[in-house]
Amino acid sequence: MAKNPVPTTGLAGKIAGKVTPWTAAADVGLSGFEAATHFSDGNVNEGIGSTGEMLMSGAVVASATGVGAPVAAGMAVVGFGMWAGSKVYKHWDTVTKTVSKAWEGTKNLAKNAADGVKNAAKSVADTIGRWFS
């Protein structure tokens, strides 16, 4: 069996395990401040995004404090949903253009594939027809 190239029990792993909850806690505070600032400025969408970031960072803290994986996982999922939703809303025009282009590309691919199958079948039928003429 190959040796793991990134040791998880070495000094770096031990330091990261101790530091991560503290940096996540700092990010909870920073994201909370950003959320409050955005909401007070009337920028609800950015406030929702910052609240989502706060929940995702809070999930790291919750899991480290013994609250439990189900609670932390729920916080992370809800936080991601809030953050992702705010980004989709913010970039809605770009999202719809991209999805529209992808849909058109998919339709063209399907049409080209169907045309290719149809042409191949016609070619086979023509060849067989020439054999008996």
Write the layout of secondary structure elements.
Elements: H1 11-40, H2 44-64, H3 69-90, H4 92-131
Helix pairs in contact: 1-2, 2-3
Q: How does this structure look, described?
A:
By secondary structure, the protein is mostly helical. The model has no long low-confidence stretch (mean pLDDT 84). Helix 1 packs antiparallel against helix 2 and helix 2 packs antiparallel against helix 3.
Give the helix level as a range of percent. Answer: over 70%
Instruction: Name the overall outline.
Output: elongated
Mean pLDDT: 84
Percentage of β-strand residues:
under 5%
Radius of gyration: 27 Å
Ranges with pLDDT <50 over ≥5 residues? none
Count of beta strands: 0
- The class by helix and strand makeup works out as mainly alpha
Task: Please provide the ordered H/E string of secondary-structure elements.
Answer: HHHH
Largest sheet, in brief, is: none
